[in-house]
């Protein structure tokens, strides 16, 4: 086995579990569906994903990541995304996501 820095084999960056009964668990993935980060490593950290906040049965603030595709969209892209945000992790304090990172609501008022 080679250290990853010495190999061109990028198989460690992702895989698709095509036998999973929940696939595709997030809508909108355009590249290979990466299942490697099924449990997102950023769940307890600051991230740029479009999460919503809810309060669980123990009164704790949690992220609802249903509409986030960042850890899943393409093996290389999602690997690079996770590595970048884990390089300087900042503990998430339970705040709502910055509106800059949320999907824009369509304006139906214009005619
Ligand atoms: S919003 Fe996306 S990137 Fe952030 S913790 Fe959830 S799944 Fe991970």
Provide the fold topology:
Blueprint: E1 52-55, E2 61-64, H1 75-87
Antiparallel strand pairs: 1-2
The structure holds iron/sulfur cluster.
Pfam families: zf-like
Protein name: Cysteine-rich small domain-containing protein
InterPro entries: Zf-like
Explain the overall architecture.
There is one protein chain. The chain has 111 residues and is largely without helices or strands. The chain has one domain. Helix content is 12%, strand content 7%. It is built from one helix and two strands, in the order ββα. Strands 1-2 form a two-stranded antiparallel ribbon. Strand 1 and strand 2 form a beta hairpin. It is globular. 17% of the residues are buried. The mean pLDDT is 93. Bound molecules: iron/sulfur cluster. Iron/sulfur cluster (SF4) binds next to loops. This is Cysteine-rich small domain-containing protein. Pfam families: zf-like. It comes from Thiohalocapsa marina.
